[in-house]
Specification:
This protein has 11 helices and 12 strands. By secondary structure, the protein is α/β, with parallel strands linked by helices. The chain has 2 domains: about 220 residues, 2-enoyl-CoA Hydratase, Chain A, domain 1 (Alpha-Beta Complex), CATH 3.90.226.10; about 55 residues, Lyase 2-enoyl-coa Hydratase, Chain  A, domain 2. The strands form 3 sheets. Strands 1, 2, 3, 5, 7, 9 and 12 form a 7-stranded mixed beta sheet that branches. α1 packs parallel to α3 and α4 crosses α5. The longest helix is centred in the middle third of the chain and has 24 residues. The chain is globular. The two termini are about 35 Å apart. About 10% of the residues have low confidence. Keywords: Acetylation, Fatty acid metabolism, Isomerase, Lipid metabolism, Peroxisome. Its main location: other. This is Delta(3,5)-Delta(2,4)-dienoyl-CoA isomerase, mitochondrial. It catalyses: (3E,5Z,8Z,11Z,14Z)-eicosapentaenoyl-CoA = (2E,4E,8Z,11Z,14Z)-eicosapentaenoyl-CoA; (3E,5Z)-octadienoyl-CoA = (2E,4E)-octadienoyl-CoA.
Length: about 280
């Protein structure tokens, strides 16, 4: 079955970058793998996988891509039908509590990507539908191939998207009118429109070129200080959800400890000696 692939990019001394499996992720092989359609068991595995990546000191960045004809076909409605359409509970209140817990667990599938301190790059080709959009909007950087298209598909199956798209997409593209149009109609957004709207930062002529660029980007990120990179991600997310004043205060509190790192000295020395950072060894966090 076509799958969604995940590769952790690790930095290994002395300055050697290696693409490796996301350790202990399900369906091992070339990468950690997940079915192209989302099922409850795989959603739970995704959470566990990213928790392990977050704690893996060797991992500096993650690339998520698809191996089939498309990036993601969304949730598996047949597999989820019993939970969603025949929920457990003796009365309306208990049924509602059960559904709320279930929805919250599905939300965590993609929120765990955002919570992971390592930068996550989505490399998208073909269709990115429904839950696929939930996933990529939780990622930090999005690349796509020219054949990519994006659909907020939930309205076509009789529900409002509830695991991240409606919350994150407006913040990603900054155009509420366009978000409303996409969410109300479930129309396809093609690659060039996605680039123009800010959903993706680069479009490539074909999948393999895109993947090469995504892994090169992950390798470049992995060559830099993990204190700086992971601190940057955490502060960017905090600033997105708070005022400028609160975010500046948070940054000052953050850096009063993080400035006490040897990485600043190493980076400054590399600049003076005109060395590339990929030739400098930064200790793992």
């Amino acid at each position: 079955m076509p799958s969604l692939n995940m590769a952790a990019i690790c930095a290994r001394p002395p300055g050697f970058l290696q693409s490796s499996d996301a350790r202990d992720c399900p369906n091992g092989g070339g990468h950690g793998g997940f079915s192209q359609t989302w099922r409850p068991a795989e959603m739970a595995e995704m959470v566990e996988c990213f928790k392990k990546i977050a704690q893996d000191a060797d991992c500096r960045a993650v690339v998520i891509s698809g191996s089939g004809k498309m990036f993601s076909a969304g949730i598996d409605l047949v597999d989820m039908a019993s939970d969603l359409l025949q929920p457990q509970g003796e009365d309306a209140a208990r049924i509602s509590w059960h559904l709320r817990r279930l929805i919250a667990s599905y939300q965590e599938t993609f929120s765990v990507i955002e919570k992971c301190p390592k930068p996550v790059i989505a490399a998208i080709h073909g269709g990115c539908i429904g839950a696929g959009v939930d996933l990529i909007t939780a990622c930090d950087i999005r690349y796509c191939a020219q054949d990519a298209f994006f659909q907020v598909k939930e309205v076509d199956i009789g529900l409002a998207a509830d695991v991240g798209t409606l919350q994150r997409l407006p913040r990603v593209i900054g155009n509420q009118s366009l978000v409303n149009e996409l969410a109300f109609t479930a129309r396809k957004m093609m690659a060039d429109e996605a680039l123009g709207s800010g959903l993706v930062s680069r479009v490539f002529p074909e999948k393999e070129v895109m993947l090469d660029a995504a892994f090169a980007l992950a390798a470049e990120i992995s060559s830099k200080s993990p204190v700086a990179v992971q601190g940057t991600k955490i502060n960017l997310l905090y600033s997105r959800d708070h005022s400028v004043a609160d975010s500046l205060n948070y940054a000052a509190s953050w850096n009063m400890s993080m400035l006490q790192t040897e990485d600043i000295v190493k980076s400054a020395q590399a600049a003076m000696e005109k060395k590339e950072l990929k030739n400098i060894t930064f200790s793992n966090l």
